[in-house]
Write a structure and sequence with these properties.
179 residues; mainly beta; 11 strands
Length: 179
């Protein structure tokens, strides 16, 4: 029995290790990524601190708003909300005086960053520049920057030196019954 246990144990390990090896023709070996979709990316520089967001998606809300959201590995959430989304356009967080009941075209929030949450407020204003939008695929790319205010202490601000998002895909929800 001990010899048989060793044999099956070694056989199991050989199967596991060979199954984990990449094929020689895999895209990571030859650099060809043409068959693989580009991953969504969001990177922010906040007062000199680079934050790479590893989970990014876009969605339309039930109130006809367009949102781009991401979460970094430490749990900070970045949320961009755009009202009246028109695709490639510059959206401002500054007051839109033509509609005093719904005065903002865009809102930028960073939640749970260094134990605080921030949002764009006037003054000063921030903006979101949608540089690419594919209505066929639903992907969106762009930049944003500005000064955000601490929601608990208006005297504290957070400067977004630069920030961008690339190829953000829409979130796909399964709406089939029973799923």
């Amino acid at each position: 029995f001990p010899m048989m246990k060793r044999f099956f144990g070694l056989l199991f390990l050989v199967i596991v290790f060979t199954a984990c090896n990449e094929d020689e023709d895999s895209p990571s070996d030859n650099g060809d990524m043409s068959d693989n979709p580009t991953a969504s990316v969001m990177v922010l520089v906040l007062e000199g601190d680079t934050v790479a967001v590893d989970s990014v998606y876009a969605r339309r809300t039930s109130r006809d708003q367009y949102q781009i959201a991401g979460i970094d590995p430490q749990g900070a959430t970045v949320l961009i909300t755009i009202k009246g989304f028109q695709g490639e356009f510059i959206y401002s967080t500054a007051a839109n005086l033509s509609n005093p009941f719904d005065p903002f075209d865009a809102r930028i929030e960073i939640r749970d960053y260094n134990s605080a949450s921030y949002y764009a407020e006037l003054p000063p204003a921030a903006y979101v520049n949608i540089t690419e939008y594919s209505s066929d695929e639903g992907t969106v790319s762009g930049t944003f920057e500005g000064v955000l205010t601490d929601k608990d202490d208006n005297s504290q601000t957070l400067q977004i030196d630069t920030a961008y998002f690339v190829n953000v895909n829409p979130i796909q929800l399964n709406t089939e019954e029973g799923k």
